[in-house]
Amino acid sequence: MQWLNKVVDETISKHPDGEILVSSGASPSGTYHIGHLREIITCDAIVRELRNAGRKAHHLHYVDDLDGLRKIPVNVPADYEKYLGQSLCDIPAPNGSEGSYADYFFNGFSRSAKQLDIDMEVVYSSKKYRSGFFTDAIEKSLSGADKTKKILEEVSGRSLGKEWSPIQVNEDGYLKKRTFISIDTHTKTITYKDKNDKSKITGYQKGEVKLDWRIDWPARWWLLGVNVEPFGRDHATKGGSYDTGTFLVRDIFGAQPPLPVPYDFVNRAGDSKKMSASKGTGIEATEVIEVLPPEIVRFFMLRFPPAKRLYFDPENGVSQLIDEFAELMQEKSDSKLTLLSRAGTEPVISPVPFSHLVGSYQASLRDMAKTLEVIKRTEHAEVAGEQAEIIKSELNYIGKWLDKWAPDDVKFELAKDVKASDFSDMEKEFLQTLAQKITTAPATADGELFHKAIYDLEEEVGMEPKAMFETLYKALIGKSSGPRAGWFLSILPREWLIKRLNLEA
Questions:
Q1: Which helix (H) or strand (E) holds 266?
Q2: Residue 300 lies inside a defined structural domain of this protein
């Protein structure tokens, strides 16, 4: 993890003394998706490594709940259009529960962070602005408004126009972009133009005024003392918000910018577009935490450098992801990636291949005890005995994956009954002949023996292998395909299997 070593070394070099603050943040304007998890996991890894290096460090997460509602997400009632422009902290929760709109969306994300064993101090912009915390930053920004504007234009390379304003003003509960005229630091008021172009006066110490995003961000760095901050690559473009923030924090606030750790997006596999919670194209963070063990989520985010785009495949990619982590645990249990993935979470991943667990669990009708018994009859018997509780926890997640994400071709259940009339005479002969072979097979027979037994019947019953397998799956699970046939036959209860192949059960 060279990227992490570099970040830690550079941070310690720049800040040889004192506690180091690593910051993350987002606006709770809608459902948090898997991309938001990348930011807080990256922060957590940096903090843990700084502590391993002997430094005090902590993670601060900034919730911009004073931000105004700009558009209505797909999972929010359409009548919330009436709240457009209001601060997220002042809008009621969409489900009618106590708390605000911001609380409704952030609380689930906060629980996800705890399940990932991420310890972060949560700070709300509404409380900071309304407590007067931003007063000095507002005064510095507005007293030098012309200088602030000049910096933004020169660094971004674009003209802001005469109507540009460094602030939004709260008018009757709604944040409005208003033209700034002047500030009086003695009376703690500003003068601005309202929508009718008339001069108005308002205070700025209790959240009546909010700094424009490009000014607000470096103001936070200064006021909070941020030393390191991961953020999406869209903010790291030339002339973007990090570049403008760097000049503003130095020239307006007299401080140094945090070490940047830009990260690329997390895309759904096969999709080149950035996930959008408001458009309903994101995979919800809470859903990811529900379906995948914490160590797998952390591993997925940390196995590649932040600069690399990640593609998440909830259907076909989970098996490979989990097996890769299981292999890492076996081969490099003390590697930095392993330890940071595990963090303080309880182990949930066993060495048993994911596909094997998925098949065994379904073949056992999702009964954990029966699944363990099935696994004990395979080459993974020792693991099943030593890590029974871990396997049970893993099966719990597998059940959720089967219900929510698993593709249809891996999902199955034993057919409750079969009709002999649904099978041709040739198909019946194949099934009955296979049943006879299984009857005489040793109790210790493995998947390889059963697999060979099927192919040995090709000439005897005059059926192509493809047709034999399709017939077998139809008899067992009511589908034309399924799990590896030989292995599947080996784990099924012998008595039941023989009856089913004879079309008696």
A1: strand 266-268
A2: no
Q: Which residue has the tokens 């194209």?
A: 281
DSSP 262: E
Report the alpha-carbon distance of residue 474 to residue 268 in Å, rounded: 33
The pLDDT score that the predictor gives to residue 466 is: 94
Q: What are the backbone angles phi and psi of residue 201, rounded to the nearest 5°?
A: -120, 140
Claim to verify: residue 44 and residue 89 sit in the same structural domain: yes
125 & 223 share domain: yes
The last residue of one of the domains, among 410, 439, 474, is 410
Whether residue 371 is contained in a domain is answered as yes
Same domain? 481 vs 399 = no
Closest CA to 46 of 37, 57, 35, 54: 57
pLDDT bracket for residue 218 (50, 70, 90)? very high
Residue 486 tokens read as 């030989």
Q: Specify whether 203 is located in the same domain as 252.
A: no
Confidence class for position 277, pLDDT limits 50, 70, 90: low
Q: Total structural domains in the chain?
A: 4
Average pLDDT over residues 382-389: 94
List, edge to edge, every strand of the sheet that includes 174-177. 174-177, 167-171, 209-211
Q: Which has the higher per-residue pLDDT, 31 or 345?
A: 31
79 Cβ partners below 8 Å, 6+ apart? none
What is the pLDDT confidence band of residue 281, given thresholds at 50, 70 and 90? low
Query: Which CATH number belongs to the domain containing residue 197 in this structure?
Result: 2.30.30
Residue located via tokens 């709604």: 174
Q: How many CB atoms lie within 10 A of CB 243?
A: 19
Q: Are residues 110 and 28 part of one domain?
A: yes
Q: Round to whole Å and give the CA distance between 434 and 444.
A: 17
Q: 273 near 267, Cβ under 8 Å?
A: yes
Give just the sign of the alpha carbon dihedral 24, 27, 32, 34: negative
pLDDT interval class at 416 (50, 70, 90): confident
* 337/232 same-domain check: no
**Which residues on neighbouring strands pair with residue 20, listed in sequence order?**
57
What region, left, alpha or beta, does residue 207 occupy, with left being phi > 0 and alpha being psi -120 to 50 degrees? left
- What does pTM read for this prediction? 0.91
- The set of residues, in sequence order, having a beta carbon less than 8 Å from that of 232 and lying 6+ positions away, is 35, 39, 262, 263, 265
Indicate whether 218 and 80 sit together in one domain. yes
Which structural domain range is residue 196 located in?
Answer: 155-211
Based on the domain organization, do 227 and 101 belong to the same domain?
yes
